[in-house]
Amino acid sequence: MDTISRHLDEDASATLERLDQSLVDLSKNIDVFYSLFCGAAIFMMQCGFAMLCAGSVRQKNVKNIMLKNLLDACGGALGYYAVGFGVAYEGGTFLGTSGGRFFLIDYDNYIDFFFQFTFAATAATIVAGTVAERCKMVAYLCYSLMLTGFVYPVVVHAIWNSAGFLSAFNESPFRGVGMIDFAGSGVVHMTGGATALIAAIVLGPRIGRFYDEDGNPLDKPGEFAPHSVSLQVLGTFILWFGWYGFNPGSTLLISVPGYGDVAALAAVTTTLAAAAGAVSSMFFDTLLGFLSEGEAEYDLTMAMNGCLGGLVGITAGCSTVEPWAAIIIGLIAGVVYVLASKLLVKLKIDDAVDAIPVHFFNGMWGCIATGLFASRRFVTMTYGETYSPGLFYGDGNLLLCEICGILFIIAWVAVIMGPFFIALNALGMFRVDPIEEKVGLDISHHKGAAYDLTGPAEGDVAELAEKRATAHGKSGFEDSA
Fold it and tell me: What's the whole-model pTM score?
């Protein structure tokens, strides 16, 4: 009897061990699938950027901007695989210098690489729209690799790597809290936006935007109408969808108790900020137009970019602010976008798709908003009890860390990308020839226009009209045709 009982106990123990292992494996696989799905949603944002940029440029440059968006993903994957991933997440005070993440030589957490690559590719894509319609392809490839392989990873290392000097995950975080940037208002969007700003300044405006062909200032900035509003709207909605991978997915795991609550909060705040940004941007622009022109007009572009500005603005604090605070952040983000867009025009900085106001200025606002609105209960839920809330909850340390992070990103990008773009320009590798710009980059660089608008031969139309008139006793077809 004792023997039977002992065997039963052993069988039960073995069964429980197998069950425990199965649960561990299941949890791990759920986390992998979660990151895979969220990463795929983020990668889908490449399509959103492509549609938005293609709709925003003139018809003669559609092929060029679409190819650049495609190459962002390609260059981002190769650059981040070779160097960027290791620089970002290996050990070191300022950057990773050695380890298995370089070329994935000795690192088999492949889902980690895939998810982080999608963020790197997003940072690179931001620049594409700003320099559209006048940037050489070789320059684009150079700075895309530079950004994803070195500039962006150093920012990631400083803020998201546990060894980073600004990281909230550091054992001894700066000011006792470090910089909270949950999904990348600063790390991703400010880095890409600052790069775009420097590129636009060095590259100069498109012909006819602020100056004529001889370099004389225009009395009024030239307006280049987007060639497809439909593509712009489609791109905006795809980007909004992708943000549900971007923000909630930044939990990285979903099986850990409490992480689902963080992801759910991020989804809600993301939604509210986007909606508030679109509304505030459109109506604020309408108000300015009414005060200056006496006419109330509603600009679709303002609504779309205001929505994107709200999404950028909530990205840093999506897991740490109350839903009502997300609405305020979005409302202010819409106003920030409008004012920043008009500031660029005033300074004669040409941004073909207004990526700088959306990503750089609202990236800054997102970091500052986190330092103001991060609530104690949600900071504790996401990061732990030792972390400080925002200024409006009685602690200014977090806001100070956010401002330091903003200054670091601006300084780092300016120091590296400023000389880089100046060198490209000095070597004649940055800007296309004026005649190529006027003709359009599709014809001058990509073997023809994006759309075949060739109609039927006039002789064939006349012959068809004559045939139908003869057959049916009618003579009006030719005139109507």
Answer: 0.92
